[in-house]
Request: fold
Amino acid sequence: MEYSFFNHNPSTSSKIADALAEFYDYYIPVVICVGTDAAIGDTLGPLVGTKLKEMGLSAYVYGSLNKTVTAKEIPTIKSFLSSVHPLAKTIVIDAAVGFKEDVGKIKVSDDGIFPGLGAEKKLPKLGDGSIIGIVSERSQNNHVFMNLTRFSPIYKMAETISEGIRQYFTVCEQKAAYKSVNGIFSKI
Reply:
């Protein structure tokens, strides 16, 4: 299942949180933010990772502007996740190219993604769920468009996505605290 939201809609962050609640049932997944700061259009993942780390969320977040997770590192991160977080659910954040009318959309899915697909890379699927931002129009030279993409809309999209994730994690933590307190009172 997949939900699409336009980034300019003020309720998009809360809709992202709602979609995550539906897909993850208030479980806090490991977050993998894919991308690089070497191409403006591919900074979405690292920007979201940086913002999430700055928020101090109680979650594992891999990929940021300081320590990127690029497409070439996907096999390594998959191996790392299976050894360090073998039972954890994961969500992948990445930039994508799409149709002209889809630029600016954020898509939240209950399925993983194939990072680097827009650059015609053949990489393994990553994640149990995903959030992608359509940052540029698909073309025969996607790498050129990714470098010509304006930074401001990508930054705004990163703010929206990270706020949606923060809202979701906050509700998860509140539910966990309620269950804990409720469990204590039921034993008294």
Observations:
- Residues 2-187 form a domain with the Rossmann fold fold (CATH 3.40.50).
- The longest helix spans residues 151-187.
- The chain has a mean pLDDT of 88.
- The chain has one domain: 2-187.
